[in-house]
Amino acid sequence: MFELQGLTRHYPVQGGSLGRRGSLRAVDGVDLTLRTGETLAVVGESGCGKSTLARLLLRLEPPTAGRVRFQGQDLWGMDRRAVRGFRRRVQMVFQDPYASLDPRMRVADIVGEGPAIHRLVRGAERRDRVALLLQQVGLPPEAATGYPHQFSGGQRQRIGIARALAVDPAVVVADEPVSALDVSVQAQILNLLQDLKRQRALTYLFISHDLRVVQHMADRVAVMYLGRVVELGPAEALFREPLHPYTRALLAAVPSPDPAHGAVPRPLQGDVPSPLDPPGGCPFHPRCPAALTRCSAEVPRRQERGQQRAVVCHLYH
Ligand code: SF4
């Protein structure tokens, strides 16, 4: 569905902690494929570049280098008509269900606007489509006449999902879709996303810092650190046997749901270095418990591990 080759996004900056001109390396040479029908999770700490990656995929900003192809077409080589089709085929579910809905619009207009703009419905069809979508996301028909402030956080996220699905997308990019919600409603929204994926044969790019959520959702996982993918593989294999020291550290930091039986979580030591001035060699080396002498001097290359897995670490070279 999507193919990313050497995808890079640097932002020029002046001043800041360096006191001189520099560039913030938000995404730094990412090679990745999003396969039709899968859920690919992108995980990493805050500031690792996962949301910038989503913006590049959505064609919200151009890459500094590298390219993104959607169904074989270069995103930045598309004509206006193709861009319009792309906008319909790729939709987003936002992190914040409070800020992502226009408070002045009724739910019927929020959900019905997209189909009208893309001329998928006419007249009364719009109302019927909105009613069907609300039903599919578990909201009553009378929700159509309400305003966002009249709904709970979980219900607002359901409205956001209905809006995304209203134009029959092929791909949904979900950027931390449950992180702003109470724990009690997170599972409901995740299950809803899973059901809708099955019913509509959707492809998901699922962005999260929460590995428990990712384990529940993903077919494959890409682990990002300082703008780069450091490990990639099927979710089941990656959770069973993480290869990269950073992935292992992320998993070790996840609390067990049953403290009586789970190991004590070990938080990852140190902060993520500034993407304005990333460490040389392997960018993870200042925090890596397995670092070798060469790690501070030599950038590790991607190693394929079988057909499905890849890791960027000198331990596997
Ligand atoms: Fe650790 Fe070295 Fe591997 Fe980087 S390359 S993750 S520092 S062992």
Task: Describe, in plain words, how this protein is organized in 3D.
The structure is a single chain. The chain has 317 residues and is α/β, with parallel strands linked by helices. It folds into two domains: 166 residues, Rossmann fold; 63 residues, no CATH class. 30% of the residues lie in helices and 23% in strands. The protein contains nine helices and twelve strands. The strands form two sheets. Strands 6-7-8-3-9-10-12-11 form an eight-stranded mixed beta sheet, with helices on both faces. The protein has a four-stranded antiparallel beta sheet with strand order 2-1-4-5. The chain is globular and about 70 Å long. The two termini are 31 Å apart.
Describe this structure in a few short sentences.
This protein has 317 residues and is of the alpha/beta class.
Question: What are the key terms here?
Answer:
317 residues; alpha/beta; eight-stranded mixed β-sheet; globular; binds iron/sulfur cluster
